[in-house]
Design brief:
The structure holds two protein chains of two kinds. By secondary structure, chain A is α/β, with parallel strands linked by helices. Chain A is 32% helix and 16% strand. In chain A, the strands form five sheets. In chain A, strands 1, 4, 5, 6, 7, 8, 11, 12 and 15 form a nine-stranded mixed sheet that branches. In chain A, strands 2-3 form a two-stranded antiparallel sheet. The longest helix of chain A is centred in the last third of the chain and has 25 residues, at 306-330. Chain B is mostly helical. Chain B has helices spanning 2-12, 22-34, 40-48, 54-64, 66-81, 91-103, 108-117, 131-135, 151-155, 161-173, 192-200, 240-244, 261-269, 275-290, 310-322, 327-335, 349-354, 371-382, 384-390, 396-410, 426-434, 436-441, 449-455, 460-471, 478-490, 517-525, 530-543, 546-549, and strands at 120-121, 205-209, 221-225, 367-368, 550-551. In chain B, the strands form two sheets. In chain B, strands 1-3-2 form a three-stranded antiparallel sheet, with no helix packed on it. A two-stranded antiparallel ribbon of chain B has the order 4-5. The longest helix of chain B has 16 residues, at 66-81. Classes of the chains: A alpha/beta, B mainly alpha. At the A-B interface, helix 1, strand 6, helix 6 and helix 7 of A face helix 10, helix 20, helix 21, helix 25 and helix 26 of B.
């Protein structure tokens, strides 16, 4: 058993595996058309252009992933098994969605259960944290020959625009997963925590706007001369990243990072937790045009003391998730924003000697809402104890393909990887039409 | 070598860029060989030197410098360890071993053999934060046992020895055998059985704990050879077929009867007639110095990915073997070629059309400084060490370690593959534009390059010159001096007064603490006069310039 991925501090994060895999993140081999960053977007569009005309309009414009890091116990949250030997002490409570009962510690979610699609038949073979986290972010098992893009990376590459002022893909409270062979530009812009602007967004205190302009003018002079002297596209590429960065620094949209604009009532509806503030920030970012936001709630790796810890985590999850859905609905954004809540696997229905539960990839739950997903339904089921999937099994690639296809990225879309092999968005995933609205 | 490359140019119809000027060559070779930029006084000395062999002597001086050892320790640590895994891995002990081997000039074949066959104790143990100091001793203070830092390389793969097989094959032979891990290779001759037989040779070690029970920090263990696959791998479904396979080298040499399979494999890999072995290292080094290997990526050498300029690769590989796998010799040869000494400037239209990405190295291929190079270069350019020392922080090594941890992730670059384009992120740009590292370096705090420069009796034009020498490692051109003099004169207009509290606290306060944040605040609060501020602005712009941030 390896520890969960989340480093104590975000910027001490662990880069990807070495060698081939990491390099795959660094260049795309599509006929060498990917010149500079701006043209990458354009080229990305045109590389995909041929099929674009045939794609039906997609309901969702943005996606928010609530990542329950460590692997939440499905039996104690979304798939309660009251009365079974491993069912644990929590009660199951009926919700306003017929046939859907949830743990008693998720009352607010129960109140809006008519918006939820609870997928109880998730199943996977990956029981190691790192491998499973990779799998549930990318739709592929780790493979040493290529680093697969996370769905956030695909969404950034597909839906992001060069003129966007904010990054297309933001991760709050955890490193998420990079964009693999799509390139670092499509990886997540990582915020350690909601409630403060990103690090180094503004110059130091002794550099005001006028002084920054003078500095920028000096730099521009050096860059122009050097670009002319070398005629190397890398210098232009670097200048474009700087241009984007200046645009971000000056963008009024960075106000989105500041939660002070929100009323006290709104802030408190999300609950007093980093995760709650992260969910509120996710809504603000989506309103400002960000395409994919991941918000991380860590601590679900409950090998010991499962019930006490899971209860505390649900106390953060329940208000945040439900307030997010309400808030999106009130702003008429729920139809165009797909919210997904999941971790890397479930936990054993059997309770271990330390009052904990261990890793259980065989059967677990994920929850979708909004973005054209039908609400108030349960899809799939586990057996009496939650040990195995009993009906309508859902593979991880199917779940992710459903999410991306709602955002207009069809599951059969493929790109040529650096090693010359076409890869689809997920490993053979199919969009689950049966759960669409 | 030059004749062979020139023949390639003729064949492809490309005309090379002009030879690189002295200052750029000196900076380039110092960055490539010693991992940092040259000192300003060394640049000046090099430029006034009229001796015809001064470039050769510059390479020799770089090879003999302590920075050479530090740089290649960083390089191989990065290639061989990457992200460290597992409680048993003592990264600092591994670095100490690397440092010793590089300092003593161990031949490449010996280095790889020792790395792959290392056994013994991994670490002196103890808390991770003390590991760096403990690694200095090379012995376990409790037991007196000798620490063999190289075993940490093997230990990082204890959960997945098949990955060690793939890594060793790729890095030391340029053969991507791990592609055949799941099924027979589609386009190459390798089968899944080849992979299993090869990987089987790496399953024959076991770990004997020195620290028993729960240990905080690094667990001390001993790595021992076994004459059969470690039994614990039998229980892992993926490893079972590998454990059952007959240990075999990639050319079919059966190693089953060898008394020590690991040693037999390492001996096979590093043999003088193992063409793959010399070619892989020559290709890697050429890629490091020229920006693109003969084969790209450097560790993917297969018939369907043929070498550019095969004849050059072959000649260099033969010479490398003849030198007794002397890495410094290889560096001398590569840096001594005319092809390494091309300018990074534009070429004529026909050439640009024939070879738009300069795959034939007719112009020098620029690469961004890696995180270690960036930190060392920035420190040397700005006097960061002196700033830190004057501010009363005694342990520069500790600070460097913290900075390294902070910036390695942010500026991680892949050395092994050619990058035709710049692959930076907004987060990197923000760190350089607004972060504490450049803010402190470009300040006029005591000890800084700017403070030192302003203290000297001199005129402003000379001061501009000295900034250029320190940061860009070249003299400023007349036009540059006159333009910047205009900025300085303009600086009489007040600009950039301190506005206390104008900066919001960023989320850095909840990330790993920034070791330079205090100095940055001190610099921001200093009441610098307008001319000093103008010099700070020039230094800031130079440090953010592509000319500084690329090796060119």
């Amino acid at each position: 058993m390896s520890p969960p991925r989340l480093p104590k501090s975000v910027d001490a994060g662990v880069p990807g595996a070495r060698g081939v895999s990491r390099r795959a993140a660094l260049h795309l081999g599509v006929g060498g058309v990917f010149g500079s960053i701006a043209s990458r977007w354009l080229a990305t569009q045109s590389a995909w252009g041929a099929e674009a005309a045939h794609t039906p309009p997609s309901p969702a414009k943005a996606c928010i992933v609530l990542w329950l890091n460590g692997g939440p116990s499905h039996v104690d949250t979304f798939d309660p098994k009251p009365g079974r030997s491993g069912g644990g002490p929590f009660k199951a409570v009926a919700t306003r969605a017929p046939g859907l009962s949830l743990c008693e510690h998720l009352p607010r979610l129960g109140d809006i259960a008519d918006r939820l699609c609870v997928i109880r038949g998730m199943t996977s073979k990956e029981g190691n944290h790192q491998r499973a986290q990779y799998f549930v972010h990318t739709g592929y098992a780790p493979n040493p020959t290529v680093v697969h893009p996370s769905i956030g990376g695909w969404i950034s590459a597909r839906l992001g625009r060069p003129e966007d002022e904010l990054p297309a893909f933001v991760s709050i409270g955890g490193p998420s997963q990079g964009a693999g062979f799509l390139g670092v530009q499509h990886g997540p812009f990582v915020l350690a925590k909601a409630g403060a602007p990103p690090a180094d967004l503004a110059p130091p205190a002794n550099v005001d706007a006028a002084r920054f302009e003078r500095r920028r003018a000096l730099l521009d002079g050096f860059e122009s001369r050097f670009a002319a002297q070398t005629a190397d596209p890398k210098v232009d590429g670097r200048r474009q990243v700087y241009t984007q960065t200046f645009r971000l620094m000056q963008s009024p949209k960075t106000r989105a990072f500041d939660l002070a604009d929100e009323s006290a009532a709104t802030v408190s509806s999300y609950g007093d937790s980093d995760f709650g503030r992260g969910c509120l920030l996710a809504r603000r970012l989506v309103e400002s045009g960000v395409r994919c936001v991941e918000v991380v709630l860590d601590g679900w790796d409950t090998h010991q003391n499962n019930f006490e810890r899971t209860k505390v985590l649900m106390a953060a999850l329940d208000p945040a998730f439900s307030a997010l859905l309400r808030d999106l609905r009130e702003r008429s954004l729920l139809g165009s924003t797909l919210v997904a809540c999941m971790g890397e696997f479930g936990r054993t229905p059997r309770i271990n000697g330390a009052d904990g539960r261990d890793h259980h990839p065989q059967a677990w739950s994920a929850v979708l809402a909004g973005g054209g997903i039908r609400g108030g339904i349960v899809h799939g089921a586990t057996d009496a104890d939650g040990e195995q999937v009993a009906s309508a099994p859902t593979r991880v690639p199917d779940l992710l393909a459903t999410i991306t296809s709602q955002l207009g990225i069809p599951p059969d879309l493929s790109l040529i990887t650096p090693i010359g092999r076409p890869l689809t968005v997920t490993d053979g995933g199919r969009a689950m039409r049966e759960i669409l609205a | 070598v030059d004749a062979l490359v020139a023949a390639e140019w003729t064949r492809a119809g490309v005309a090379p860029a002009p030879a690189v000027d002295d200052a750029t060559f000196f900076r380039r070779v110092t960055v490539d060989v010693a991992g940092t930029i040259p000192r300003a006084e060394d640049v000046t000395a090099f430029l006034i030197d009229r001796a015809p062999d001064k470039r050769t002597r510059a390479v020799e001086a770089a090879l003999a410098s302590p920075e050479y050892v530090d740089h290649w320790t960083d390089y191989w640590d990065d290639v061989l360890m990457g992200a460290p895994r597992g409680q048993d891995v003592d990264r600092d002990a591994f670095r100490a071993w690397l440092h010793d081997e590089i300092a003593s000039g161990t031949p490449w074949n010996r280095f790889v053999y020792d790395l792959l066959t290392a056994s013994g104790q991994n670490s002196a143990g103890g808390a991770r934060r003390d590991a760096r100091a403990r690694a200095e001793t090379r012995t376990d203070p409790e037991t007196g046992a000798r620490i063999h830092g190289a075993v940490n390389f093997t230990l990082q793969y204890q959960e997945a020895p098949q990955d060690l097989a793939g890594m060793a094959s790729r890095t030391f032979l340029g053969v991507q055998i791990q592609c055949a891990q799941c099924h027979d290779h589609k386009t190459e001759k390798w089968t899944q059985d080849d992979f299993r037989r090869f990987a089987s040779t790496f399953l024959r070690t076991r770990i004997v704990p020195v620290d028993r029970g729960k240990t905080m920090g690094i667990r001390r263990v001993e790595l021992e050879d076994l004459d059969r696959p470690a039994p614990r791998y039998d229980k892992v479904a993926d490893l079972r077929p590998i454990a059952d396979a007959r240990p075999t080298a990639l050319d079919g040499t059966d190693l089953t009867t060898a008394p020590n399979v690991r040693a037999a494999l390492a001996g096979w890999m590093t043999a003088r007639d193992r063409e793959w072995f010399a070619r892989a290292m020559v290709n890697r080094m050429w890629g490091h110095f020229l920006g693109r290997g003969f084969v790209d990526p450097v560790d993917d050498m297969r018939p369907s990915n043929p070498a550019t300029a095969e004849a050059v690769l072959r000649a260099l590989a033969a010479d490398f073997v003849a030198s007794g796998f002397d890495t410094k010799h290889l560096i001398r040869v590569i840096t001594g070629t005319a092809v390494y000494q091309r300018a990074a400037s534009a070429v004529d239209d026909a050439t640009a059309k024939a070879d738009p990405d300069a795959h034939l190295w007719e112009r020098f291929r620029m690469t961004p400084l890696g995180p270690d190079e960036l930190l060392r270069a920035l420190s040397r350019a700005t006097g960061l060490d002196a700033i830190v020392a004057r501010a009363g922080r005694p342990d520069m090594e500790q600070l460097r370690f913290q900075l390294r941890r902070r910036y390695t992730f942010l500026f991680d670059v892949d050395e092994d593959a050619d990058r035709g384009e710049y692959d930076g992120t907004i987060t990197q740009a923000l760190a350089l534009l607004n972060g504490s590292l450049v803010a402190t370096g470009a300040s006029s705090l005591p000890g800084s390059a700017i403070a030192e420069m302003l203290a000297r009796p001199s005129d402003d034009a000379t001061r501009v010159q000295s900034l250029f020498l320190r940061i860009l490692s070249r003299p400023a051109r007349d036009t540059e001096v006159s333009e910047l003099m205009a900025t300085l004169n303009d600086a009489s207009r007040p600009i950039g007064a301190v506005e206390p509290g104008s900066r919001k606290k960023g989320d850095e306060r909840i990330r790993a603490p920034d070791p330079l944040r205090g100095l940055e605040r001190r610099a921001a609060a200093a009441r610098a006069d307008s001319r000093t501020r103008a010099f700070e602005d020039i230094a800031w712009a130079l440090l953010n310039s592509s000319e500084f941030l690329f090796n060119h």
